[in-house]
């Protein structure tokens, strides 16, 4: 049974995951506060508080009078270390009063040699070593992330991609719902990975997009060198034992056409 009037703070409320969380929290009986550097559109009755992880401005006001935090703030490309580690550590120092800290993370980050993933590992370590009651929930890559990063810009009617890379992508709305369901379950440490319903190579995903969108593009698969490429071919970013998500990449693509 849902606890009424539980006070929740969502950080990173303008990001992809943050936006999905806000969309679903509108139907929940929680007092919701959101925080980010810019105010999201269409927030309804949610209270928005300005905060900046880089400077620390606004954080005290943001974390005041909340019971649960869903930490969706992240920065994969810009000032990542400051946001993911330095700013995160400062943030944790201000929230020792809360009942439950929910931290979304990424599957396989300790096995994939990528700077952003190393920073996420460090953030997980900081949270584990704190006195804050927490849940760490790792997910595989979002459908939209794979498409936007690797399948959004064909060159000369070709998707030029490292086609053998494996993904087990998930729908961001499903993962957002999973995080919200964790709110009333209380702190659980690290929970099972949240992974998509199927494992596909990037080449297979590109071919699905071409088929569904009736494109004239083709796929040119190129091999890459290095430990990062090897880890992704080996599926270190997947977990076939945890097919929790239900929306496939094909369904995601078809839903975009509706």
Examine the secondary-structure arrangement and name the CATH architecture of the domain at 6-141 and 172-190: 3-Layer(aba) Sandwich
How far the N terminus sits from the C terminus, by CA atoms, comes to: 34 Å
Backbone structural class: alpha/beta
Report the mean per-residue pLDDT as an integer. 94
Radius of gyration: 19 Å
Structure description:
With 258 residues, this protein is α/β, with parallel strands linked by helices. The chain has a domain at 6-141 and 172-190: 3-Layer(aba) Sandwich (Rossmann fold), CATH 3.40.50. Helix content is 34%, strand content 19%. The chain has helices at 16-25, 59-63, 80-92, 115-128, 143-150, 172-182, 202-212, 227-233, 249-257, and strands at residues 6-11, 30-36, 47-50, 68-71, 100-106, 134-139, 158-161, 166-167, 189-190, 200-201, 218-221. The longest helix is centred in the middle third of the chain and has 14 residues, at 115-128. The mean pLDDT is 94.
